[in-house]
Design a protein that fits this description.
The protein has 138 residues and is mainly beta. It is built from two helices and eleven strands; from the N terminus they run βββααββββββββ.
Length: 138
């Protein structure tokens, strides 16, 4: 990824050039930085805030995520809208926190179209959190 900032040329991002006036005025938009989920290594390729509420998976907000599937208690598959270029990405799962339950995650499938995870309590029991999340970097 190229990122060059100077007073004359602006910044060069993977898909375009952002002029220095946009940088100094704070008017850089998402479309100026990237127009693709498959280029620009180091950027967040997909993210999702989801949970299991009232016996259903709920996606609160997302980018490049088509669906989240609960295959059984504590096991979730996050499906990408646009596939990753390869499976060499870093899935970072985030946990919802409650006062009584500490969660941890064990990713078990990473491929170009999805990332799957098992969510456990600190007592090693599978768990369906009301809030969870995923960010994928490549």
């Amino acid at each position: 990824m190229t990122f060059i900032v100077d007073g004359t040329n602006g910044a060069t991002f993977p898909d375009t050039t952002v002029q220095s006036t946009a940088l100094t005025t704070g008017s850089v938009t998402k479309s100026m930085i990237s127009t693709s989920t498959s280029t620009g290594f180091g950027l967040c390729r997909a993210w999702c805030n989801f949970g299991y509420v009232a016996s259903a998976v709920v996606i609160n907000s997302s980018y490049n995520v088509s669906s989240v599937t609960r295959t059984s208690a504590g096991i979730y598959v996050v499906n990408f809208t646009t596939a990753m270029t390869d499976a060499n990405y870093a899935p970072i799962y985030l946990m919802g926190w409650t006062a009584t339950i500490a969660n941890f995650y064990a990713p078990y499938t990473i491929n170009t179209s999805a990332s799957a995870v098992t969510i456990y309590t600190s007592g090693s029991q599978v768990y369906d959190p009301p809030t969870s999340g995923l960010a994928v970097f490549r």
